[in-house]
Amino acid sequence: MPFHYRLLGRDRMALYSFIQSLNTTFGTSIFEPVAEVLASFRFPVASRQFVVGNRISQKAQEEIQNIINELSSGATYPDKEEEIERIRKVARQGEAIEVKPFRVDLFLKDKNGSVHLFDLKTAKPNIGEFKNYKRTLLEWVAIYLWKEPSANINSYIAIPYNPYEPEPYQRWTMRGVIDIERELKVAEEFWDFLGGDGSYEELLNCFERVGIKLRPVLDRYFSKFRS
User: Fold this and answer.
1) Alpha carbons within 13 A on the beta-carbon side of 10
2) For an engineered disulfide with 109, which of 8, 10, 45, 160 has Cβ 3.0 to 4.6 Å away?
3) Torsional class of 176: left (φ above 0), alpha (ψ -120 to 50), beta (otherwise)
4) What is the arrangement of strands in the sheet containing 96-109, beginning at the earlier edge strand?
5) pTM over 0.70
6) Cα R_g (the chain), whole angstroms
7) Structural domain boundaries in the chain
8) Strand 115-120 vs strand 153-159: parallel, antiparallel, or unpaired?
């Protein structure tokens, strides 16, 4: 990137490339393992990259499409509890369709046996993406209920940090598609759900302490790019 190097300097470009690499790997290499470890202190079962299953009933697929159509047209408002019950009624009806194994980023089972499935998103999704995410969340529910029709199940989108901080997360972008109360956990909501009250702030403190410790190492590394 010769124009960038000459305009900004090799040291700034090296730092930019480093940050871009971190952004790419934060989800699978940092957030998922940290979430799994943190949740393991409160949940009897905590597992990342968990395979939900590979079968869904034909009727459940049809019901999911009905839900998506109703939400898209504005005929109904998102209500995850009602949507799950609609899927539960048809979870074992019709032909069992074999699909590619579905993996969830984080699978939790609490002491009461309730199941929590998380899809971690580190970018700022747009409204079109949220429609796809909604379908995925409902499909997870249908696939799990095919195996365990009576399971108490929840599925969420988790955004580990608020990209708008200190302003509130712009939840209005997904209204009409996502049940804000039951399908979305952002920043503090997510980490405190996993580890209990105060987990988010303590986690930020941990990252800060590591950053302070690593700073001399990073400074030495980037100094070789200064001209």
Assistant:
1) 7
2) 45
3) left
4) 45-57, 96-109, 115-120, 153-159, 184-186
5) yes
6) 21
7) 29-196
8) parallel
